[in-house]
Amino acid sequence: MNDTRFSNVMEYEKDLWLCARCGDCSLADKIVASNREIFHPCAVKNVLGFEAYTARGRIMVINDLLAGKLELDDDLVNWAFTCTTCKNCQETCTATADGIRMAEITEALRRDLVDKGLDMPKHRIIEEYIEKEGNPYKEPREKRLELFGERQWPERAEVVYFVGCTSAYREREIAIDTVALLDKAGVDFTILPDEECCGSVMHRLGREGPFNKSAQKNIKAIEKTKAKYLITACAGCYRTWKIDIPENGHKFKFEVLHITEFLDKLISEKRIAFEAPNGIRVTYHDPCHLGRHSEVYEAPRRVIQSVKNVELVEMMTNKRYAHCCGAGGGVKSSHGELADKIAARRINEAEDTQAELLITACPFCLRGLHDGADYIKSSLRIIDIPQFLLPYVIKGVIEVSEEENPLKQEFMDYLRAHPKIFDGLKPDAVIDYIIEDDRFHVRIVKKGQIEVNPIRAENPDVELTFSEGAVRELIQIPSEDEYAARFGQFFKEPTDEKWIKFNLRRNIVKLLMKGYRKFAQKAGLI
Amino acid sequence: MTIVKAAKTHPLYDKLVEIVSEERINDNPIIISSYSHDACHLEAERPSIVIMPETVEEIQKIVKICNDTRTAVIPAGGRNGICGACLPRVKGAVMLDMVKMDKIVTLDEDAMTVTVEAGLRWAELIHRLDEKGYKLGFRGPYGGNVGTVGGSVSINSIGYAASKFGPSTEGVVSLEVVLPDGSVITTGSGWNRDAQLFARFTSFNDITGVFLGDHGTLGVKTKVTLKIYPKAEFITYGDFGFRTLEDAVRAFHEVQKRGLTEELNLLTDRQSTDTFFPGFLDNHPEINAMFASIVQETDQQLADRKMEIIRETALEHGGKDLGNFASQMHWSELFNLVQPLYNNGFWLNTCHLRPILRVPELMKKMWEIFEKYKLLNNGIKWIASCLGAERTYATGWVTIFAPTKDKMDLALTAWNEMLDAVIATGGCPYWNGLLWEDHTLRQVDPAFLNVVHTLKRAIDPNGIMCPHVFEGVK
Fold first, then answer.
1. pLDDT tens per residue across span A378-391
2. In three state form, how does the secondary structure of B85-145 look?
3. What pLDDT is attached to residue A451?
């Protein structure tokens, strides 16, 4: 008889009950039917075929495990480490407000398996090396900063660049180019002399390891520098710093930014700019830990698009619904060929765009995508963002050539002056506004207070598209009630000149929780 | 590649693995576990081995071996049906997971048909047709993100755009079927090897109809030819509320009779609207029932005029114009409407068909059951809705949601009474499966059933295709 106590998995009992096995996580194509870029979301199922590898199948297997209907054996362990925990299934899922949390359930199951002594021997070795050498690559601790030569790092700086194990030991160009970029922008930064693994690998494999000890040591070292920002070019480190370390009770005052967010900030402050000598068509792969896990989608795109003469084209699946590269969630270390095959499919997707270059923003994705390209002998060039940008840095005075759209500006000003329009929406509700192919977004800060940002939202709840005529009329309306009535009219009775359309970006349950019912009622929609 | 290795204990494993590669056959209990349910709570036997065929020839070979050894074969599509139709009734069954057979075989722009492999999902077919400038008639079941064309037409599935085009089976022109002896036939105009697949009813009996709705009992459908239409870009929407269900049903009947809409949906009471669309009726306290109507045409004036007629009809029956937000949401969330309802709990359905004017009779019985078991007091919500279908019948979709495991027994007790009430008020389930079979067999005319069983024996003398289906669950 199996030991059917799975205390970590049982924390997700509600998810296990509410999954009604619709199968969207497995086979959905929502591209035309409901205007979402979802296509066969499970990158693992797309290679391995059988349902057991999808979220729907995994939940059936886990429910059988809990009921003692399956053996706890090597097959089960092998299966448990086939999930990349990429969360594409969760983004696709509309069964609960946040979607069925398969990545978390998978990590919980792994913790239970490890607790029962069921794991992969190679994972034990990884843990030993992280404990002993502060990295999972079996490399000596003292060689971590070898890639920077004899350079001495200041004890204090405004910014700490957290290199991460993969950039320090494997994808060294990323670290070298990140440092070069920061130098070119004149950033006051430093690097920790005794940086430890952030703990991402351990967490993904369901192990504790020295996670808390390392986190404390790293935090202490960063705080000693008096840094305001911690930046990293690794999506895995970023997620760990942004989510896992705080969730484990660690507190710190510095702000964590991914390199793309930091560069986006530098670009907007006119501290750095880029220009490619010739036109180049590129596409971008969203790392799961940066995108779905941390909701950073637009900053990397703004950075890429800031490079003069660069055309960014999207892959069929992108942003929230981008296919995983296959390297994450311990799959690369557990089942290397599976990771390569998943990456190869992502390479094919990138090739379909006719882009010359595939850019990503994570050393682990970069490694995985390179291996995938090798697997199918693809000649597609793959590069990480710092490597892509470095040759294009412009010297001298930086001019911003973009012209502001005056109508967008007027609409933003109008909304700023009429925050009552958004009464009823909960804090952190985000609406993206689209007019004349330009975007801005409104975020609810608290009751009666909104933030109007001139850029596209990272992950909006709803996208509203307005005709020029509709905006021109709306911004003349003095009262919020009249605005709502006219808004409703343009939606319900559109004309060629005055219309409003919407696109829901979150599921209906989540929208209701965020207060959109009141918003719709105020706007005269219901 | 394979990670979870096959157990290789199924007696036919060695023979079957020679037909498909190791990557596409597996009898490991972990893999089997993930094929143990569809999207309902009902359970049957588990398949003993799962195969993912890629070609008709592979299926022919598999079926032939199974026929020679009297082994059960269960074709399965997206496995998100809600009646347990894809679950075996016997041990040792070979399940064919058809989803790798998902190609468009022919797009015949002259005959306006599309021939697809049976494992293609509806949403994906819509995507591919859209790129070519076409639409389907029947658009797919509400689970059409995952539901396959072959699966739907095997169980008389119904859903989007049935209000104009009828259920899934109405759009079928021809089928390619692997028979239990391994031979292949093409129905409709396909009897003539030199003909295009352009018509269903030609020269002989309607053999297509024999296989439609057979629940996989007569063969393995490998290709389906469907009617297509020019893409229609002009859409108008209208939501109308009524004080009584009776008024709503009469207006609904009038609109449906005239064939005005692509999709016409009725919500029978406030509780249903509140569950489906919280807050929608907050500003309309007098409204008890409502319908959402969607018109889709190739011409804007035509779309506008049809919606005007619908509005006039609704108002003539005491209706109130509620705007069009519900119908816009309904249509823009194609194939995503049902899943958010799971948030209310695991669902129990009573899906069936009935003449529109008999909807109030059903609801009277249902409300008695809701009250008898104090469902709302127990946190069990419901949605009662009807989708207009091909002239003047409609689906009866009365669904209750068990919010937690401990409420399931109560929900099941009420649900079983609801199933009886459906049959007693003249309802006919469109699919059968584990959900309905015992109920329908109690009511069926023996002579009718004899014809069904005679057909089965004639086409599948060894009884390998989905054995014991239409013979009762218990």
1. 999 999 999 999 99
2. CCCCCCCCCEEEEHHHCCCEEEEECCCCEEEEECCCEHHHHHHHHHHHCEEECCCEECCCC
3. 96
Contacts of A526 in chain B (CB under 8 A): 277, 279-280, 282-283, 322-323, 325-326
Q: Which phi and psi (to 5°) does residue B434 adopt?
A: -60, -30
Contacts of B105 (CB under 8 A, 6+ apart): B115, B116, B117, B223
| Domain range list for chain A | 9-115, 121-265, 273-392, 406-522
List the domain range (segments joined by +) for residue B394: 234-431
Residue B63 in any domain: the answer is no
Across A213-238, b (16+ Cβ under 10 Å) vs e yields: ebbebbbebbeebebebbbbbbbbbb
Total number of domains in chain B: 2
> Which tokens hold the place of B217?
């009992």
Sequence-distant (6+) residues with CB within 8 A of B107 are B114, B115, B129, B132, B134, B228
ipTM exceeds 0.85: yes
Instruction: Report the distance separating Cα B385 and Cα B397, nearest Å.
Output: 5
pLDDT band at A400 (very low <50, low <70, confident <90, very high): low
Sheet holding A308-313, edge to edge: A308-313, A275-284, A357-360, A381-384
Contact A335 B3 (CB under 8 A): yes
State the pTM of this model. Answer: 0.95
Closest A-chain CA to B130: A32
Q: Which of residues 294-323 of B touch A (CB under 8 A)?
A: 322-323
Closest CA to A503 of A465, A469, A471: A465
A72: left (phi over 0), alpha (psi -120 to 50) or beta: beta
Answer yes or no: is B424 within a domain.
yes
Residue B128, domain CATH: 3.30.465.10
- Is A516 near chain B, with CB under 8 Å? no
